[in-house]
Design brief:
Distance between the termini: 50 Å
Number of helices: 6
Shape: elongated
Mean pLDDT: 81
Order of helices and strands: HHHHHEEEEHE
Radius of gyration: 24 Å
Length: about 220
């Protein structure tokens, strides 16, 4: 039925809004919606062909109704496509502002891909996806990151990606999730090795927490 595939894209978009990461792009669903749009457009052209460009809706209400249904289906599919891609773009921009390495952080392990397929299998196939981004999304993320870096470069003494809410505690306990080497803090240099824990000033490690190198302990 027309509109069913577009609904799946909307369900994917809704699910994406509740996640902290960007799930795999759905090229098969996008292509299916695009095919449906072309089929509807051909249907409209075939209906109007006998009238030679002089169709009068009041003279043929049944034909006018068919054209209206096709038009509304095309409009709905276009809105589903736009909504799906808008949600993904918003998530990409959010990740860029948080300082995450969007492109390098997207490839999934086989176990993650299996988990994603188990959760979202009924919404569309995610198997075989080695990267969550489409080629166009990768290029957009690169260019957006370049623009953001140039913008932030004007104010080197201000962290524009920091949280707008003041921290509840100046110092926090953190656990190192990935080796990050040496960093310089207000109280000296520390070496971040995996599974080690530190009591540090939140302002010194906020970016590393956002990038997934550190985990804040409650």
């Amino acid at each position: 039925m027309y509109g069913d595939v577009g609904l799946k894209l909307v369900q994917h978009a809704k699910r994406t809004q509740a996640l902290n990461h960007l799930p795999p792009y759905q090229p098969e669903l996008v292509r299916a919606v695009a095919r449906e749009l072309r089929e509807l457009d051909r249907d409209v052209a075939n209906i109007l062909a006998p009238f030679g460009g002089s169709f009068n809706p009041s003279a043929s209400p049944a034909t006018a109704c068919s054209l209206l249904v096709d038009h509304l289906c095309m409009r709905r599919n276009k809105r589903c496509l736009l909504a799906y891609h808008r949600v993904r773009v918003d998530k990409l921009e959010e990740m860029c502002w948080e300082g995450q390495d969007v492109i390098d952080s997207q490839p999934q392990t086989q176990s993650e891909a299996r988990d994603g397929h188990a959760v979202g299998g009924r919404l569309g196939s995610e198997s075989g996806a080695s990267n969550s981004l489409s080629p166009e999304e990768e290029e957009y993320a690169r260019q957006y990151s370049d623009i953001l870096a140039a913008y932030k470069g004007q104010w080197t003494d201000i962290d524009l990606t920091g949280s707008l809410e003041p921290p509840k505690d100046l110092f926090i306990d953190v656990r190192v999730l990935k080796n990050a080497g040496d960093i310089q803090t207000e109280y000296g240099a520390i070496t971040l090795t995996k599974n080690s824990q530190f009591y540090v000033r939140q302002g010194d490690v906020g970016r590393l927490i956002a990038q997934g190198y550190l985990q804040k302990l409650s």
